């Protein structure tokens, strides 16, 4: 029986490692996992959460001196939210204001949107998701201890206050900007911005927050901000409103630890916006002034050693996807900037960016919208047309941008403008750039390098210009809608 059990466990491990579609665990060997399973069967590990013993249907396992435990059984007993996404092979654990995302077999985690390396990845054993307990617990601000004599992992829940206390609101100025600083006593998240005409105002609502200030305003004496007002707008929402002299949108960003929030006003923004006019040279509408400080992250797919798809005819390389992606993205970047939109290009030349760096860079920049620029390929030479991928997130309402709506708009415009076959807008959470970006995100797949007719189009300047123009038009439309809803 013991031999049969060992064989069974070995088969599970082989299947698990064979199905690691997003694997990043090259130094975790079959022997490491097998040794951990056998050792912990002989010397079991116990779990205690807040003083109570927790019995799980799949026992903890120690691999390379790191203890992995069942995610749901343990952390849900603390009041955590544990979500599993089968398509993305992604487990997400949220507790209080902290969130940890782990992809099965990947040694890269995302903690509050920031990329963090791990020594041992999350794994699936006996159809249960096991996660590295110390890494996840400490990321969620739980206390973790190990009792060697009893071989027990001891976890203690953090003291969770459901609300962040806003303890100070202040003002500072430099040569380029005016800055409002909102100081919290914990992580500030769930911020929604808004702006109004007649009179001009810009404001933010901070969710899960309590105001702890005696004053209700800051007096201002400058050419942009008349005053700053703040109040407990709802029981769990703090509202901060800037009364403005001119129509200038504020830019919201955070300190690295996210305990401070900044609202910046560019001193030259009103003049810059006025000089834009109403329509660009490409015929695009200039973006609504209230959306001028929203940041669009443009990601030209692949780059460097990663060529992406390739068009090869008679053994000759005709076109690399990375090159056409960059060409289109650069055009789109120019068009959006000329329409008054702030942009961030993740690459402007032929450099490599890893899979997980892309969402990490977008999150670090506190982007408002992520656009992945790609083109397609298939083993079937008849496959052709355009498709757009999206993944709807719960927090999209904070941005006023809904990816399903944007994806369907881009899809329709691309089909109408380029005359390509309509492959549809598709929800797919398996893409890291969709499931690990905090902001709304889509991926555009323009046409097929593997299809003869599509390739002829892609080689033309007209195709690339229309691709960029159509995407830019849709982005402007959705940004304007986000401030008008």
So, CATH architecture of the largest domain? 3-Layer(aba) Sandwich
> For this structure, what is the CATH homologous superfamily of the largest domain?
Zn-dependent exopeptidases
The computed structural class is alpha+beta
Number of structural units classed as domains: 3
Radius of gyration: 25 Å
Mean pLDDT over all positions? 90
Give the oligomeric state.
single chain
**Helicity range of the residues?**
25-40%
Strand segment count:
31
User: How is the CATH topology of the largest domain named?
Assistant: Aminopeptidase
Strands in their spatial order, largest beta sheet: 27-24-28-31-29-30
Number of helices: 12
Low-pLDDT segments, ≥5 res: 1-26
Structure description:
By secondary structure, the chain is α+β, with helices and mostly antiparallel strands. It has three domains: 2-156, Copper amine oxidase-like, N-terminal domain (Copper Amine Oxidase, Chain A, domain 1); 164-273, Immunoglobulin-like (Sandwich), CATH 2.60.40; 277-484, Aminopeptidase (3-Layer(aba) Sandwich), CATH 3.40.630.40. 27% of the residues lie in helices and 35% in strands. It contains twelve helices and 31 strands. The strands form seven sheets. A six-stranded mixed sheet has the order 27-24-28-31-29-30. A hairpin with a 4-residue loop joins strand 12 (143-147) and strand 13. The longest helix has 24 residues, at 461-484. The radius of gyration is 25 Å and the shape is flat. The N and C termini lie far apart (65 Å).
């Amino acid at each position: 029986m013991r031999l049969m059990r060992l064989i069974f466990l070995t088969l599970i491990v082989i299947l698990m490692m064979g199905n690691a579609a997003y694997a990043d665990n090259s130094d975790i060997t079959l022997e490491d996992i097998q040794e951990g399973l056998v050792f912990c069967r002989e010397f079991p590990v116990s779990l205690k959460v807040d003083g109570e013993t927790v019995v799980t249907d799949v026992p903890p396992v120690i691999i390379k001196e790191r203890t992995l435990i069942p995610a749901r059984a343990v952390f849900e007993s603390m009041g955590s939210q544990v979500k599993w996404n089968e398509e993305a092979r992604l487990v997400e654990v949220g507790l209080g204001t902290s969130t940890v995302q782990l992809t099965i077999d990947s040694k890269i985690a995302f903690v509050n949107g920031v990329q963090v390396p791990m020594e041992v990845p999350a794994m699936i054993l006996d159809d249960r998701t096991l996660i590295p307990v110390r890494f996840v617990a400490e990321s969620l601000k739980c206390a973790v201890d190990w009792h060697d004599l009893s071989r027990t992992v001891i976890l203690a829940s953090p003291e969770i206050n459901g609300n962040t206390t806003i303890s100070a609101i202040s003002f500072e100025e430099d040569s380029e900007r005016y800055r409002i600083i909102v100081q919290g006593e914990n992580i500030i998240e769930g911020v929604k911005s808004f702006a109004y005409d007649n009179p001009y105002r810009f404001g933010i609502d901070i969710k899960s927050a309590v105001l702890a200030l005696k004053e209700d305003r800051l007096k201002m004496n400058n050419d942009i901000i008349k005053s700053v007002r703040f109040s407990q707008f709802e029981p769990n929402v703090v509202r901060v409103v800037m009364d403005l002299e001119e129509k200038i949108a504020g830019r919201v960003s955070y300190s690295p630890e996210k305990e401070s929030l900044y609202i910046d006003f560019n001193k030259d923004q009103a003049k810059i916006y006025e000089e834009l006019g109403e329509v660009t040279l490409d015929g695009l509408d200039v973006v609504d002034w209230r959306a001028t400080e929203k940041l669009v992250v443009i990601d030209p797919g692949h780059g460097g050693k990663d060529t992406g798809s390739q068009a090869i005819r008679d053994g000759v390389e005709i076109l690399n996807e990375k090159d056409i992606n960059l060409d289109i993205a650069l055009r789109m970047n120019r068009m959006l900037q000329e329409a008054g939109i702030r942009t961030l290009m993740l690459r402007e030349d032929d450099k490599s960016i890893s899979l997980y760096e892309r969402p990490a860079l977008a999150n670090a920049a506190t982007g408002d919208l992520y656009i992945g620029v790609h083109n397609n390929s298939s083993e079937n030479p008849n496959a052709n047309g355009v498709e757009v991928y999206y993944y709807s997130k719960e927090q999209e309402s904070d941005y006023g941008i809904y990816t399903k709506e944007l994806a369907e708009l881009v899809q329709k415009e691309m089909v109408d403008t380029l005359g390509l076959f309509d492959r549809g807008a598709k929800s797919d959470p398996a893409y890291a750039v969709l499931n690990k970006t905090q902001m709304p995100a889509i991926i555009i797949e323009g046409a097929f390098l593997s299809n003869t007719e599509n390739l002829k189009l892609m080689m033309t300047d007209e195709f690339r210009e229309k691709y960029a123009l159509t995407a830019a038009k849709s982005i402007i439309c959705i940004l304007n809608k986000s401030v008008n809803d």
